[in-house]
Amino acid sequence: xxxxxxxxxxxxxxxxxxxxxxxxxxxxxxxxxxxxxxxxxxxxxxxxxxxxxxxxxxxxxxxxxxxxxxxxxxxxxxxxxxxxxxxxxxxxxxxxxxxxxxxxxxxxxxxxxx
Length: 114
Prior knowledge:
By secondary structure, the chain is mainly beta.
Protein backbone atom coordinates (compact mmCIF):
# COMPACT_ATOMS: atom_id res chain seq x y z
CA UNK A 1 0.00 0.00 0.00
CA UNK A 2 1.35 3.42 -0.91
CA UNK A 3 1.92 6.04 1.73
CA UNK A 4 -0.67 8.78 2.05
CA UNK A 5 -0.16 11.72 -0.26
CA UNK A 6 -1.30 15.33 0.07
CA UNK A 7 -2.15 17.62 -2.84
CA UNK A 8 -2.45 21.37 -3.14
CA UNK A 9 -6.18 21.04 -2.38
CA UNK A 10 -5.42 19.62 1.09
CA UNK A 11 -6.81 16.21 0.20
CA UNK A 12 -5.34 13.14 1.89
CA UNK A 13 -5.16 10.19 -0.51
CA UNK A 14 -3.99 6.60 -0.21
CA UNK A 15 -3.77 3.73 -2.67
CA UNK A 16 -5.98 0.95 -1.30
CA UNK A 17 -5.98 -1.31 -4.34
CA UNK A 18 -4.35 -2.27 -7.62
CA UNK A 19 -6.17 -3.63 -10.67
CA UNK A 20 -5.56 -4.74 -14.24
CA UNK A 21 -8.02 -4.42 -17.12
CA UNK A 22 -9.53 -7.68 -18.40
CA UNK A 23 -11.84 -8.56 -21.31
CA UNK A 24 -14.91 -7.81 -19.22
CA UNK A 25 -13.87 -5.52 -16.40
CA UNK A 26 -10.95 -5.49 -13.96
CA UNK A 27 -9.27 -7.85 -11.48
CA UNK A 28 -7.02 -7.00 -8.56
CA UNK A 29 -6.80 -6.58 -4.82
CA UNK A 30 -8.18 -4.21 -2.20
CA UNK A 31 -6.03 -3.75 0.91
CA UNK A 32 -6.76 -1.61 3.95
CA UNK A 33 -6.01 -2.10 7.64
CA UNK A 34 -9.21 -4.16 7.93
CA UNK A 35 -9.55 -5.60 4.42
CA UNK A 36 -7.30 -7.72 2.19
CA UNK A 37 -9.29 -9.32 -0.64
CA UNK A 38 -8.94 -10.35 -4.26
CA UNK A 39 -11.63 -8.50 -6.15
CA UNK A 40 -13.16 -8.33 -9.59
CA UNK A 41 -15.05 -5.44 -11.12
CA UNK A 42 -17.64 -6.68 -13.62
CA UNK A 43 -19.99 -4.77 -15.94
CA UNK A 44 -23.53 -4.42 -14.57
CA UNK A 45 -26.86 -4.38 -16.34
CA UNK A 46 -28.12 -0.83 -15.87
CA UNK A 47 -31.78 -0.63 -14.82
CA UNK A 48 -31.73 3.19 -15.05
CA UNK A 49 -29.35 6.16 -15.56
CA UNK A 50 -28.34 6.27 -11.88
CA UNK A 51 -27.60 2.54 -11.62
CA UNK A 52 -23.92 1.57 -11.39
CA UNK A 53 -21.95 0.66 -14.51
CA UNK A 54 -19.99 -2.01 -12.59
CA UNK A 55 -20.45 -4.36 -9.62
CA UNK A 56 -17.53 -5.26 -7.35
CA UNK A 57 -17.11 -8.78 -5.97
CA UNK A 58 -14.85 -10.68 -3.56
CA UNK A 59 -15.49 -14.27 -4.62
CA UNK A 60 -19.26 -14.50 -5.04
CA UNK A 61 -19.97 -11.71 -2.53
CA UNK A 62 -20.87 -8.30 -3.94
CA UNK A 63 -19.37 -5.54 -1.81
CA UNK A 64 -19.37 -2.50 -4.07
CA UNK A 65 -20.30 -0.67 -7.23
CA UNK A 66 -18.64 1.65 -9.72
CA UNK A 67 -19.84 4.46 -11.96
CA UNK A 68 -18.05 5.70 -15.09
CA UNK A 69 -16.96 9.33 -14.68
CA UNK A 70 -14.79 11.87 -16.50
CA UNK A 71 -12.46 14.31 -14.69
CA UNK A 72 -12.33 18.02 -15.44
CA UNK A 73 -9.15 17.25 -17.42
CA UNK A 74 -11.10 14.75 -19.56
CA UNK A 75 -9.64 11.56 -18.02
CA UNK A 76 -12.00 8.63 -17.58
CA UNK A 77 -12.15 6.87 -14.20
CA UNK A 78 -14.51 4.82 -12.04
CA UNK A 79 -16.11 6.35 -8.97
CA UNK A 80 -16.27 3.42 -6.53
CA UNK A 81 -18.31 2.77 -3.39
CA UNK A 82 -17.37 -0.25 -1.26
CA UNK A 83 -19.68 -1.33 1.56
CA UNK A 84 -20.19 -4.31 3.83
CA UNK A 85 -21.97 -4.87 7.14
CA UNK A 86 -18.53 -5.21 8.79
CA UNK A 87 -17.49 -1.67 7.69
CA UNK A 88 -18.22 1.22 10.06
CA UNK A 89 -19.04 3.35 6.97
CA UNK A 90 -18.87 2.99 3.19
CA UNK A 91 -15.49 3.47 1.50
CA UNK A 92 -15.44 5.90 -1.42
CA UNK A 93 -12.57 5.73 -3.92
CA UNK A 94 -11.59 6.26 -7.56
CA UNK A 95 -10.14 3.65 -9.91
CA UNK A 96 -7.66 5.54 -12.07
CA UNK A 97 -4.78 5.01 -14.46
CA UNK A 98 -1.57 6.36 -12.96
CA UNK A 99 0.98 7.89 -15.32
CA UNK A 100 4.18 5.90 -15.49
CA UNK A 101 2.65 2.82 -13.83
CA UNK A 102 1.05 -0.31 -15.26
CA UNK A 103 -2.52 -1.15 -14.39
CA UNK A 104 -4.87 0.98 -12.35
CA UNK A 105 -4.88 2.19 -8.76
CA UNK A 106 -7.84 2.36 -6.40
CA UNK A 107 -7.36 5.69 -4.60
CA UNK A 108 -9.21 6.47 -1.36
CA UNK A 109 -9.42 10.12 -0.39
CA UNK A 110 -10.77 12.23 2.43
CA UNK A 111 -10.79 16.00 2.54
CA UNK A 112 -9.20 17.53 5.62
CA UNK A 113 -11.79 18.29 8.24
CA UNK A 114 -13.96 15.26 7.41
